[in-house]
Amino acid sequence: MGHKVHPGGFRLGVTHNWQAKWYAEKNYAQFLQDDLKLRRAIEEKSPGGNITRVEIERTGDELGLTLYSARPGILIGKGGQNVESLRAELEKISGNRIRLTIREVEHPELEACLVARGIADRIEGRVPFRHAMKQAAFRTMQAGAKGIKIRCAGRLGGHEIARVENLHQGQMPLHKLCADISYGLVEARTVMGRIGVKVWIYKGDTISEVRRENVTAEASEAS
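^ thats the sequence. predicted structure below, dont judge the formating
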């Protein structure tokens, strides 16, 4: 697999599911732009919520949003104040009634976007990038991951010429479709410029429910 292939898009329908669950023939471009505005607003309004994934579902005039967060208590707030204000802001942007659901992420150390965000925050705090990469890889492997790959690119260490630094531990089967790989990309905004942080986390091999049902049906027909 080439470097330009997204690990999630490469496995859609196999181990990964779509994050936008709707269909449109006439208003596809408008719905797509609305989804991008909603995702951008959620990222800006809840920076401390550690949101890993946003699923959007359109059913009639209602818009369903499911937020997967490592800190759901921060998103909900005291007495649900934060989630109500967030819902009101999103309804102003979309113009539709929104059903907001927040779900907790059980293992934040195995979510690539959260790991990349942590590395980027440490780089912004002037922590040496190699130290941040090694600590993140150690915690991820301790959490039960089978492999991790981290790539930082930019003016690392304040050098005038941009370069790329890689860290690889364990296995990383990029060509295997049944491999459950989490991918995240975050930019660290430093004084010397932006530094891109990419993280791949290999959790093991899995098989989707659709594929499992097909295999079971084929086995029963053969018998």
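Residues 122 and 132 are 6 Å apart (CA to CA).
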